[in-house]
Design goal:
Elements (H helix, E strand, L loop, with lengths): L8 E7 L6 H16 L3 E7 L5 H10 L5 E5 L9 H9 L3 E6 L3 H9 L5 H14 L9 E4 L15 E3 L22 E7 L8 H12 L6 E7 L5 H10 L6 E5 L3 H10 L2 E3 L15 H9 L3 E4 L12 E4 L6 H8 L10 H11 L2 H12 L2
Parallel strand pairs: 1-2, 1-3, 3-4, 4-5, 5-6, 7-8, 7-10, 8-9, 10-11, 11-12
Helix pairs in contact: 1-12, 2-3, 4-5, 6-10, 9-11
């Protein structure tokens, strides 16, 4: 008689409006695809973001009947989950807390939100006072960038610093890289534009470099919308850079692929220091890699060592001389890697299936 081995179940619990946060939803779905590719049964449990969701979260934790429960951090409200986490541990459940943004950064973001002073005071107080305590009752903590010392207190051994995963198969690989003749360097920047992307730094550096007597000229296409779009458009006009910089708005599918096909280099975040970060795990950099485009960025990334030949790592600071010097001393060797080489790296290091194996091995399941 053949014994039937029951697959273990891994659930992901999140409070989410997927229409307002499609990127987050896409990432979670990809994570669960990685779970299934690793030989487990996956389950997505979504609770709404309306008042009362905290009680729903506690109920979901208490009724969880699988082996591993992944909970997307509730940030300043994590303290509310402590009793439920204790009960889950007593039932032998393994709980992973997924922290998409380090709490030290979230604290700053909460302080700068456009809400009433009373709400702002409550939120930052909850987060600061609960500090590292909610994480003490988890099996593992997933972090994608270094956490602040207060929030990391007592959590170093249970923290796993990982890079974000992507669904490599869902990203079209470009057929070939465009030729570089030394006169025109085409950049593409795809982002939900915000201050930490540092596109303003890039625009200013381009204005300086393109005004100098160099044979090479830098061209940039900006794909996406966001909080700083208008200010960036005004900056381009102020510096008379319309000839070199285009704003294309949101693109996907074939339209986005065409821009990837035409770009020599892609642009990741250039101002992590504005979020008090020295490292980050950017999804867009991973998508560039899967599509087969070399790229530039600042700060460390857990999946791309400093010597990664197709990722140019610039200093993580405000000084735009770093960018102008990069253009003045541009070395086309960073363009010499085929799309297939980058794609292979993405399959081996960035795909959701790889990430989930790493996480589950760390949990010991």
């Amino acid at each position: 008689m053949i014994a039937i081995v029951q697959k273990k179940k891994i659930s992901y619990l999140v409070s989410l409006d997927k229409d307002k946060s499609p990127g987050v939803y896409k990432k979670i779905v990809g994570t669960l695809q990685g779970v299934e590719q690793s030989g487990y049964i996956s389950e997505l449990v979504i609770k709404d973001t309306n008042p009362g969701f905290l009680a729903q979260f506690v109920e979901a934790i208490d009724s969880f009947d699988g082996e591993v429960l992944i909970i997307r951090s509730l940030c300043q409200y994590n303290f509310y989950l402590i009793p439920a986490l204790i009960r889950a541990k007593s039932r032998g459940k393994k709980v992973i807390l997924d922290i998409p943004t380090p709490n030290v950064v979230a604290f700053k973001e909460l302080y700068n939100t456009n809400t009433s002073w009373l709400r702002k005071f409550k939120d930052v107080s909850y987060l600061a006072l609960s500090g590292p305590v909610p994480f003490w009752f988890s099996t593992k903590i997933l972090q994608y960038a270094q956490e602040g010392s207060w929030f990391a207190l007592g959590n170093h051994k249970r923290t796993l610093l990982v890079g974000n995963g992507i669904n490599v198969a869902a990203i079209q690989e470009r057929k070939q890289a465009p030729l570089f003749d030394g006169t025109c360097l085409n950049l593409v920047c795809v982002a939900s534009l915000n201050y930490w992307h540092g596109v303003d730094r890039l625009i200013k550096a381009m204005a300086i470099f393109n005004s100098e007597d160099y044979r090479l000229k830098i061209h940039l296409k900006i794909v996406g919308n966001g909080a700083v779009l208008t200010s960036l458009q005004e900056l381009v006009e102020e510096l008379s850079m319309q000839k070199y910089i285009q704003f294309l708005g949101f693109l996907d599918g074939e339209n986005l692929y065409q821009e990837y096909e035409a770009a020599h280099l892609a642009v990741g975040s250039l101002a992590l220091f504005r979020k008090n970060l020295n490292s980050a795990s950017e999804l867009k950099s991973r998508e560039y890699c899967a599509a087969g485009i070399p790229f530039i960025g600042v700060g460390d990334d857990p999946d791309f060592p400093p010597n990664t030949p197709f990722r140019t790592q610039l200093p993580n600071r405000e000084n735009i001389n770093d960018l102008t010097d990069f253009f003045r001393n541009f070395n086309p060797d960073c363009l010499s890697y085929s799309p297939n080489q980058l794609r292979k790296f993405a399959w081996q290091n960035l795909d959701f299936s790889v990430k989930m194996k790493e996480i589950l091995n760390a949990v010991g399941d």
